[in-house]
């Protein structure tokens, strides 16, 4: 019988051969191949890692989870990285941590208010509603598409306790003003970094300014594990609370497969439990099970090594879209990076001017009929979405730009899989559309 180590080597060699046969090269055929707005970009290493993890058959967090979390921490220069099963779960866990009674008077509770924006993705708003707090929506600016920092003051009330906003499509919001504002009013800040993993503000990585930050590893994002996410913080108490909420609400912080790390597993008093009740089964929070699997982490551990290169490609692709759309300044408002920032753009966002003789949907429909994918800016104006219309919320002043975005804005991809042939084809398609409306 063959030795299992030899068989493993053969499997990995076959995995490399499979990658080369299946994924190594795909040709773009104009008019027949899709120009995706996003997609997986990977090489043989992701497949090798996934197979290695499968052969280990360590199905929960294991050696690859530890490696992946360490690499994220090194990249961002943060102390604590907790992996989870999605970016939306990351947002839920970050917010949940701030509701813990262990934070005393600082905890978020039902009836408190949280500053957010309505022009974004639901995952920054739903945790606020789920915990019985009130989102207070502030309008955004065009062409940065980030929170209007001047309008934030109109959102403040005696109930305001937190700011929970995202870096829109990779473009950092004004972190100087937001963090100073939070300090002035003693507010928690959660930095949704899901679209901006690798962006910088004042030479520092986004996701490192707030009390807590979140990342998504969905295939559309800067790196992918399929489904997956992470929560980052430099605060050990917040890290402990995130872990508790992620791991069923349990008080114990032992890693999977470990026991009695604290040395006090059977000698403590909790709640009304008997003295010495097994600490591994003490639940101090109303939690979930939202952990990442080691197979997902194995893919992430390979992906993150490519992140700097992916970010540079996104920046180059953004510039290529600027070149193409700059030919028609009478029709389009083009995106602008926030002052003092260096975005690793998630996408290229465009707003049609009021005087434009065609609609957003006419242009995006034409693109999509020609196999060029576009997306709207997520929810548009979230308070007009069916699931949110009857929820409890407050508007700081107005959402005028948010409504413009809902009606007139779309985006194209910047992901590293875009090629010169794809840009050339899209440019020709745009030219043909513009010519057709003259």
Structural overview:
This protein has 438 residues and is of the alpha/beta class. The chain has one domain (1-249, 284-438): Aspartate Aminotransferase, domain 2 (3-Layer(aba) Sandwich), CATH 3.40.640.10. 34% of the residues lie in helices and 13% in strands. The strands form 3 sheets. It has an 8-stranded mixed sheet with strand order 1-9-8-5-4-2-3-13, sandwiched between helices. It has a 3-stranded antiparallel sheet with strand order 7-6-11, with no helix packed on it. A 3-stranded antiparallel sheet has the order 10-12-14. α5 links the parallel β2 (113-117) and β3.
Short description:
The protein has 12 helices and 14 strands. With 438 residues, it is an alpha/beta fold. The strands form 3 sheets. It has an 8-stranded mixed beta sheet with strand order 1-9-8-5-4-2-3-13, with helices on both faces. Strands 7-6-11 form a 3-stranded antiparallel beta sheet, with no helix packed on it. It has a 3-stranded antiparallel beta sheet with strand order 10-12-14.
């Amino acid at each position: 019988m063959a030795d299992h180590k030899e068989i493993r080597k053969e499997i990995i060699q076959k995995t490399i051969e499979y990658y080369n046969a299946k994924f190594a090269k795909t040709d773009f055929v104009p008019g027949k191949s899709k120009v995706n707005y996003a997609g997986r970009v990977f090489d043989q290493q992701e497949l090798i890692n996934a197979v290695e993890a499968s052969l280990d058959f360590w199905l929960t967090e294991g050696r690859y989870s530890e490696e992946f979390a360490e690499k994220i921490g090194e990249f961002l220069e943060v102390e604590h990285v907790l992996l989870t099963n999605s970016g939306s779960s990351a947002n839920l866990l970050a917010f949940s941590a701030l509701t813990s009674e262990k934070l005393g008077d600082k905890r978020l509770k039902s009836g408190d208010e949280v500053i957010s924006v309505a022009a974004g993705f639901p995952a920054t708003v739903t945790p606020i509603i789920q915990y019985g707090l009130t989102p207070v929506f502030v309008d955004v600016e065009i062409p940065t598409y980030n929170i209007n920092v001047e309008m934030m003051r109109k959102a403040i009330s005696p109930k305001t306790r937190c700011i929970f906003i995202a870096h829109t499509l990779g473009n950092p919001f004004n972190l100087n003003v937001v963090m100073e504002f939070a300090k002035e009013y003693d507010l928690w800040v959660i930095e949704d970094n899901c679209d901006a993993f690798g962006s910088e503000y004042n030479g520092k990585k986004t996701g490192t300014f707030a009390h807590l930050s979140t990342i998504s590893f969905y295939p559309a994002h800067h790196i992918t594990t399929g489904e997956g996410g992470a929560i980052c913080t430099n605060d050990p108490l917040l890290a402990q609370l995130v872990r508790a909420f992620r791991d069923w609400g349990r008080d114990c912080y032992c890693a999977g497969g470990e026991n009695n790390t604290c040395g006090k597993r059977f000698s403590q008093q909790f709640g009304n439990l008997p003295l010495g009740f097994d600490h591994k089964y003490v639940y101090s929070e109303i939690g979930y099970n939202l952990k990442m699997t080691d197979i997902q982490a194995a893919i992430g551990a390979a992906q993150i090594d490519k992140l700097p290169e992916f970010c540079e490609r996104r920046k180059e692709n953004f510039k290529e879209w600027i070149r193409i759309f700059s030919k028609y300044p009478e029709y389009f408002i083009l995106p602008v990076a926030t002052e003092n920032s260096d975005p690793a753009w998630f996408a290229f966002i465009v707003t049609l001017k009021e005087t434009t003789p065609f609609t957003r949907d006419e242009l995006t429909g034409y693109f999509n009929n020609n196999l060029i994918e576009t997306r709207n800016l997520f929810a548009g104006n979230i308070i007009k979405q069916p699931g949110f219309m009857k929820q409890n919320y407050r508007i700081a002043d107005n959402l005028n730009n948010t409504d413009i975005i809902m009606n007139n804005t779309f985006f194209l991809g910047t992901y590293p899989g875009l090629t010169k042939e794809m840009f050339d084809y899209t440019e020709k398609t745009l030219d043909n559309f513009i010519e057709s409306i003259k």
